[in-house]
Automatic annotation (TrEMBL):
Residues 38-287 form the G-protein coupled receptors family 1 profile domain. CDD domains: 7tmA_OR6C-like. It comes from Vulpes vulpes (Red fox). InterPro entries: GPCR_Rhodpsn, GPCR_Rhodpsn_7TM, Olfact_rcpt, Olfact_rcpt_6C-like. It is found in: Cell membrane. Keywords: Cell membrane, G-protein coupled receptor, Membrane, Olfaction, Receptor, Sensory transduction, Transducer, Transmembrane, Transmembrane helix. Putative odorant or sperm cell receptor. This is Olfactory receptor. It comes from the Eukaryota. Gene3D superfamilies: Rhodopsin 7-helix transmembrane proteins.
Length: 311
């Protein structure tokens, strides 16, 4: 973003109403605290509990790390703005915020695809699971998710760095985001807008195709199981991931694939707030409350801490 005379931006946030701002601050502070606590708990459990050393929990650990990074890139800054009334963000800070939110957001989609492939191998090829999903393969898949995310965001980001801001520096959003920045630019942004949309469609199509194909084979395999108990167990291992996939894809498709959503600024901001606050908060609870192994690992950890504190 070649800023010329503009070196700072002003973030309008969600509202100017002081009472609503207090409610938003409390809501965001609670959801952010729960998000960090829940995702950190999952990361710690996967490190300390020997039963959670499988590929499934390796990916879950990395997904939790992405969630922490994603929400931390924007929510603390917005909380600071509400608390202090300082809505000014520097040009460089804005660029960094766009980079990290986009990188973590896009990488999450590829990681969700990798997690669906892991479930496919576990259910459809159980005898070869340990060989196919070895430690080295899991690490390579995780690195590929980050690299893919970086490759996807480089084209629109490089175009964004050439945007000019002449008259307005007021961003109608609570954080730096592609579409609000494009809206206030005095450059011809049509090519960049199309690049953002194409990259979003490319990401969604590639990852969603992988997810849909994986679960199509999973469901087909599950229905072949002879006993109801086996089917229930197989569905329970996938249900948490399917819920998270539905939430993540649903909200992002609303923003990037729905043309009218870009015109309805308020709706767009509210949906973005849900993506940055609610989703990272819900995800650890979805995975833990529906997963007996994680619950048992958590209970065992609490018992160990209680024993250590009594000594």
């Amino acid at each position: 973003m070649r800023n010329g005379t503009i070196t700072t931006f002003i973030l309008l946030g969600l509202t100017d109403d002081p009472e609503l701002q207090v409610l938003i601050f409390i809501f965001l502070f609670l959801t952010y605290t729960l998000s960090i606590t829940g995702n950190l708990a999952i990361i710690i459990l996967t490190f300390v509990d020997p039963h959670l050393k499988t590929p499934m929990y390796f990916f879950l650990k990395n997904f939790s790390f992405l969630e922490i990074s994603f929400t931390s890139a924007i929510i603390p800054r917005y909380l600071y703005s509400i608390a202090t009334g300082d809505n000014v963000i520097t040009y460089n800070a804005c660029v960094i915020q766009v980079f990290f939110t986009d990188l973590c957001g896009v990488s999450e989609f590829f990681l969700l695809a990798a997690m669906s492939y892991d479930r496919y191998v576990a259910i459809c090829k159980p005898l070869h699971y340990v060989i196919i999903m070895s430690n080295s393969v899991c690490r390579i898949l995780n690195i590929c998710c980050w690299v893919a995310g970086l490759c996807i965001i480089i084209p629109p980001l490089s175009l964004g760095l050439n945007l000019k801001f002449c008259d307005s520096n007021i961003i109608d959003h609570f954080g730096c985001d592609a579409f609000p920045l494009v809206k206030i630019s005095c450059s011809d942004t049509r090519f960049m807008e199309w690049t953002v949309i194409i990259c979003a469609i490319l990401t969604l199509n590639m990852t969603l195709t992988c997810v849909v194909l994986s679960y199509a084979y999973i469901i087909k395999t599950i229905f072949r199981f002879p006993s109801v108990q086996q089917r229930k167990k197989a569905f329970s291992t996938c249900s948490s991931h399917m819920i998270v996939v539905s939430i993540t894809y649903g909200t992002c498709i609303f923003i990037y694939m729905n043309p009218t959503a870009k015109e309805k600024v308020t709706i767009n901001k509210v949906v973005s707030l849900l993506i940055f606050s609610i989703s990272p908060t819900l995800n650890p609870f979805i995975y833990t409350l529906r997963n007996n192994q994680v619950k048992k690992a958590f209970e065992d950890s609490i018992k160990r801490i209680a024993l250590l504190s009594t000594k």
